[in-house]
Amino acid sequence: MAYRDLVRGWHEGILAMDKGDWDSALKIFSSIEEPSSRIYFNIGCVHLSTGNPEGALQAFDKTVTKDNHLAVGFFQRGFVCLQLEMYEEALYDFSMALTHLRNNPFIDYKQLGLRHMLCAWEVLYNTAAVQCRLGLWQEARITLEEAIRQRPEGRTTSLDVALEWVQNHLFLEPIHVPLGEFFRPRKEEVEQLDSKDFLGKPKVRPPRLQKDACSDRPVLYRMVAHHGYTAQRPEDLEFNEGDTLDILSEVNEEWLEGHCNGNFGIFPKCFAAQASIGAACP
């Protein structure tokens, strides 16, 4: 399937979801050949909205199979596993979500089309919720105390109450990505669906590729870091807020390979926003 057709089906599915027409959304998404991890994520969210955790589990399985770095995919699957009383599986998924947060306090998925910020404290809170159901009250308390240490402003009261519940051996209600939040295609891609030339044919804009002066590799596009990123592994690219990044390849839907300040490596896409091409190579 051409990417243009995938975007069209994706957009039509989103329109159905926004109307609450879950059956049509599932039908549209199911007709897409080789769905991306984000489309499988949306299918899982539809099943959650209709009270079908088994269907959601199958969709989120495919989500993390397609992209095994997608922290929010593991987070959602962990929530479903908890609902289905698959507690060991839920613990694994929340552990994987934390792993792919890579010691960062959050990942903002807005750049990828999901209006949600997954925070480390949320993953820890859900981990504690599973530990409660396994009767691991001491472990749940320790996990929740770590969530409290990482809590943002404004969450003090709710997490303190949760800690009291754990101390009194009461179950915690798990949290998930809010219903109604889905991965959406980029606005620019949707707008181009109806763009045509004077003959009535879809416009095809050839890519404007420049070369990275430091590596002689084609630059797909440039991004500007709106958060600093600290390297966690040797292959990571470290940068500061405001740095310009030359994007050399797209590793997957969540990670990019880039160049900045003389260094090369990979980094989470959600730490930067696309900029106009033309900035000089640092």
Automatic annotation (TrEMBL):
Q: Which residues form the SH3 domain?
A: 218-277
Any GO CC annotation of this UniProt entry: NADPH oxidase complex
Q: Which GO terms describe its biological process?
A: regulation of hydrogen peroxide metabolic process; regulation of respiratory burst; superoxide anion generation
Q: Does the keyword Repeat apply?
A: yes
Alphabetized InterPro entries for the sequence: NCF2_NOXA1, SH3-like_dom_sf, SH3_domain, TPR-like_helical_dom_sf, TPR_rpt
UniProtKB keywords: Cytoplasm, Repeat, SH3 domain, TPR repeat
PANTHER family referenced in this protein's UniProt entry, alphabetically: NADPH OXIDASE ACTIVATOR 1, NEUTROPHIL CYTOSOLIC FACTOR 2, NEUTROPHIL NADPH OXIDASE FACTOR 2
Q: Which family does it belong to?
A: Belongs to the NCF2/NOXA1 family.
Entry protein name: NADPH oxidase activator 1
